[in-house]
Amino acid sequence: MITELIDYRSIPRVSNSDLTRLKEEFLGTNRFIGQRALQFGRAFHSHLLEPESVGGIIEQLLPDLKPIESGRLEQLTEQVRRDSFCRRYLRKSERERVILFTDPLTELACKARLDMVYTSPKSRNALILDFKTTSARTQSQFLQSCYDYDYDRQAAFYIDGLRHADSREWDQTRQIRFVLIGVQKQKPHRLFAIEATSIPDFVEYGRKKYRFWLRKWNEQQQNATPWLRQAS
Fold it and tell me: pLDDT of 131-148, one tens digit each?
């Protein structure tokens, strides 16, 4: 998992995370997320999507709190696996699928790594699932966090990534749904589900966001800004 993470980051294409860094640099802001929280989120994804590698992840990301964090990770992932909807798609979906695509407006080479994607060959529909650890205690709080953390931009970026994938695998796909699953970090570890594609203007607003920042990225690249040349 660590090797795959490094390999993905080394692909010289623009990711949604790159757009977040660009936004923070451009606006002179920095969305504060503690390093421990970031590490825990990464470890959670590994525990859920690649459980065979979780020992190495905990050792490398959370060495000081290994017994405590390992137990909490197990509680969170078990909560997800007990849910019938999540269990079904954990079994049927591709996990951590890397998508390479070209944005048709800016012609920038882009990339995305999807937590899970399920494609139905019969109905020609696709479902993207993305998991987030959250401090939200209610559905409405989790929905607000989706706007606060630009998950609408991520949803649009990933959906359009499938539509424009270099592999052309989803050219004939009629519908792409995007579902965000929030996993409460505190007990009782509730699950919150937001179907982004069913919320009016959610994806379209996110699309406007990512297109704006892709244009800014393109301008910065043309001006040869040093920090952007070093970005993954």
Answer: 999 999 999 999 999 999
pLDDT at 123: 80
- Assigned architecture for domain 2-230: Alpha-Beta Complex (3.90)
Those residues whose C-beta lies under 8 Å from the C-beta of residue 209, and which sit 6 or more positions away, are: 150, 152, 153, 156
Taking the domains of the chain in order of start, what are their residue ranges? 2-230
pTM over 0.90: no
Strands of the 109-120 sheet, one edge to the other: 94-102, 109-120, 125-134, 175-184, 191-195
Q: How far is CA 64 from CA 2, 32, 53, 69, 140, in A?
A: 18, 22, 18, 9, 34
